[in-house]
Amino acid sequence: xxxxxxxxxxxxxxxxxxxxxxxxxxxxxxxxxxxxxxxxxxxxxxxxxxxxxxxxxxxxxxxxxxxxxxxxxxxxxxxxxxxxxxxxxxxxxxxxxxxxxxxxxxxxxxxxxxxxxxxxxxxxxxxxxxxxxxxxxxxxxxxxxxxxxxxxxxxxxxxxxxxxxxxxxxxxxxxxxxxxxxxxxxxxxxxxxxxxxxxxxxxxxxxxxxxxxxxxxxxxxxxxxxxxxxxxxxxxxxxxxxxxxxxxxxxxxxxxxxxxxxxxx
Length: 265
Known about the structure:
By secondary structure, the protein is an alpha/beta fold. Helix content is 28%, strand content 22%.
C-alpha cells in the first residue's frame, strides 16, 4: 500500500505550482471552462474529475501552455510566460505520441534529446522506473496498450520535470501497468514534484492522490482531500450520471408486459 501524506493548502509565501485565476475558455459559442480559479501547492498529486465534457482536458492544455484562455490568467511556478517554465513541465496527453516503428529505448532517446539530454543510462532508468525492460528488442507498434502507456509516462518524465500533467493515463491499461504507473507518480510526489491527473479511474490512485478537484459543465464544482468519503462521492456522482443517461422508448402501450419497443441505452 502506498501511503499518501496529508493534503494541505499552499502555505504563506510558497509559490503555487499552478494558479488559475478566473479562467474561461470558449470554442466559438461553446464555453469549455467558465471562470475557474484554482491554486495547487507544490508536492501534491491532484486529480481532475468530472463527466465527459466537464472541461478537464481543456484545463490541462491551458496549464501546459498548449492553449490560451479566452479570459483570465494561468501561472506555473509564479510565471505566466510558457518560456519561463516549459523545461520544468512534463505532459502526457491522451494519445501516446510515440513512434511505432522505433523501439522503446529509441523513442526515449529521441525525446530526451529534445531536452538536451544525451544519456542512454538516463533513458534506461526512466523505462525501468515504470517497469519496462530497456533491453527489449521490440518495436513500440508491437507493445500492448499497458506497455505503451508506461512508455508514454517514461517519455513525460525522462527530463525530471517539476510539474507533470497526465490526461487519462490509465485508459485501457491492465492492473499491473496501472500499479507501476501509480508507484512512479508516488515517487515523484515524495520527491517534491507536482502531479495533476485527469482520470475516470481515480481508484488507481488510492493512497497516492492527495486531493480531488471536481469540474462540472466547465465550472469548479468541488475540491476535497482524496479519501474514502471522496471516493464514495465520486461513485455516487458516476451512478447518477449513468442513471440520467437511461432512456425508455415505447411506441405503443403494452398489453402483456413484454419488452418490445423498449430501448435502454
